[in-house]
Design brief:
Belongs to the TRAFAC class translation factor GTPase superfamily. Classic translation factor GTPase family. PrfC subfamily. Keywords: Cytoplasm, GTP-binding, Nucleotide-binding, Protein biosynthesis. The chain is α+β, with helices and mostly antiparallel strands and 507 residues long. The protein is 25% helix and 31% strand. The chain is built from 12 helices and 33 strands. The longest helix is centred in the C-terminal third of the chain and has 15 residues.
Length: 507
């Protein structure tokens, strides 16, 4: 039965409180028992979903983690995405695997650039969004300012579902519009511990503000929300537990169950009997004691059973999946069955790659998983030249995961890595050292960006004949034009109108 699945992501700008909200949702779902709960090893207080070494050092989420939990008969699959502004490609791809998203906004800062960027990706796929305005127990912008900014910046109708009564030092609770009760702060910590009171008399100015908020914005409309045209807005404080319960209830009640997924001209329905899914992420070395590689599959249809044989589109031979994994961040448990909407981890040795479709009949190909043209290109220089083989293996692994892209120049021996954001380079160097024991430095590359080239074979051959010094192959063997500047791209496009210079490549 697919209707009890809710597969969603949390998106936000760094520091909006996404990690805290993730942890509180898991607490609500009974998946953890103590906020800030960590492995006994080490004293670092960090969220369960942040596990890579660089994440612990910098206190940010770098990889997308999957957490599955149940509450009131609903199975929630929460995909925690990196919020760091420099780390976007993994985030973008994760958003292809969800049916809805929760957008977290800091009440003092409003919509920030990263939030807007992630929202655009949701819009491309009509992913419906619930907005959570966080940190209302602190000083922030007025309700109208926040609501109007969401409406204007994202071109969405907004439908407030709650409102803070005062902010900062004047904060006295959060009013739930559904039943006119107020969640009250308690104790020295001023957090919500379950105490609710009916709405009493309010000071005139606050009463007027609340009335205007209720009357001045559209009522919630399920169809408009699911079409991606309206966002319900909840106000709260993840740290102090305000609004978390209401948010999880809204996801259960309103967020769509598994949606059909695009496969070329066809839409594959979750009701289809055949088991189908696609790989949106590959993560190596989740367990440093074992060189493991887990492919994350978003199941699109059918009922999966452990031991079943599925055929990956990139491999062609059926593989038996004996140890499928359900995730709770770094903890795992074997999955005997999984339904449409679930995210399962498939251990493999490099067979599965980002963008692969898995199916029983090998007749389906899911589309729409993008690679983005890198905005930063660097040459990789080994500290110890005898480790070329290990470096090649590491770069292959990491490009398979989608952490980096690797380009092999037609002329010249030094490989070039491309990333969307600066932080990916730090992740690359950190992981080369920690996981592969390869010390390397990054050097400037003569190129500023890259474009995939498509066209008739004779036109490609002609272009290649005169431009070999600026051409490379990616890890799939596709031809890539390495440009010294954006002007260079425009010039070549004008000169060769018969060719397409593409900034994205669908897997």
């Amino acid at each position: 039965m697919t209707s009890n699945r809710r597969t969603f992501a949390i998106i936000s700008h760094p520091d909006a409180g996404k990690t805290t909200l993730t942890e509180k949702l898991l607490l609500q779902g009974g998946a953890i028992h103590l906020a800030g709960e960590v492995k006994a090893r080490g004293q670092a207080r960090r969220a369960r979903s942040d596990w890579m070494k660089i994440e612990q050092q910098r206190g940010i989420s770098v990889t997308s983690s999957v957490m599955t939990f149940e509450k009131d008969g609903i199975t929630f699959n929460l995909l925690d995405t990196p919020g760091h502004e420099d780390f976007s490609e993994d985030t973008y791809r994760t958003l292809t695997a969800v049916d809805s998203a929760v957008m977290v906004i800091d009440v003092a800062k409003g919509i920030e650039s990263q939030t807007k960027k992630l929202f655009e990706v949701c819009r491309l796929r009509n992913v419906p969004i619930i907005t959570f305005v966080n940190k209302v127990d602190r000083e922030g912008r007025s309700l109208f300012e926040i609501l109007d900014e969401v409406a204007d910046a994202l071109a969405l109708d907004v439908s407030p579902q709650s409102a803070p009564l005062g902010m900062g030092g004047l904060f006295t609770g959060v009013l739930d519009f559904a039943d006119d009760t107020v969640a009250k702060p308690e104790g020295d910590s001023r957090e919500y511990r379950g105490k609710r009171e009916p709405l009493g008399d309010l000071p005139d100015d606050l009463a007027e503000e609340i009335e205007l908020v209720r009357e001045g914005y559209p009522e919630f409309d399920l169809e408009a929300y699911r079409n991606g045209d309206l966002t319900p807005v909840f106000f709260g404080s993840a740290l102090k537990n305000f609004g978390v319960e209401e948010l999880i209830d809204a996801i259960a009640k309103w967020a769509p169950p598994p949606r059909p997924q695009p496969a070329g001209e066809e839409q594959i329905s979750p009701e289809r009997d055949e088991v189908t899914g696609f790989i949106f992420k590959v993560q190596a070395n989740m367990d440093p004691n074992h060189r493991d590689r887990i492919a994350f599959m978003r199941q699109v249809s059918g009922t999966f059973k452990r031991g079943m044989k599925l055929t990956p589109s990139g491999f062609g031979k059926p593989i038996a999946i004996h140890s499928p994994i359900l995730f709770f961040a770094q903890d795992r448990e074997l999955a005997d069955t999984a339904e449409a909407g679930d995210i399962i981890g498939i251990p493999n040795h490099g067979t599965l790659r980002v963008g692969d479709t898995l199916s029983e009949t090998n007749k389906v190909r899911f589309t729409g998983l993008p690679n983005f043209a890198p905005e930063i290109l660097r040459r990789v220089a080994l500290v110890d030249p005898t480790k070329t083989k290990q470096l090649r293996k590491a770069l292959d692994d990491l490009s398979e995961e989608g952490v980096i892209q690797v380009f092999y120049p037609e002329i010249g021996a030094q490989w070039i890595v491309g990333v969307v954001g600066q932080l990916q380079l730090e992740v690359l160097i950190s992981r080369l050292d920690a996981e592969y024991k390869v010390a390397a430095n990054l050097e400037a590359s003569p190129f500023a960006t890259a474009r995939w080239i498509k066209g008739a074979q004779k036109d490609l051959d002609e272009f290649e004949k005169y431009n070999r010094a600026t051409l490379a192959k990616d890890r799939d063997g596709d031809l890539v034009f390495m440009a010294k500047s954006p002007w260079d791209v425009g010039y070549q496009q004008e000169k060769h109108p018969e060719l397409v210079f593409s900034a994205t490549k669908e897997r």
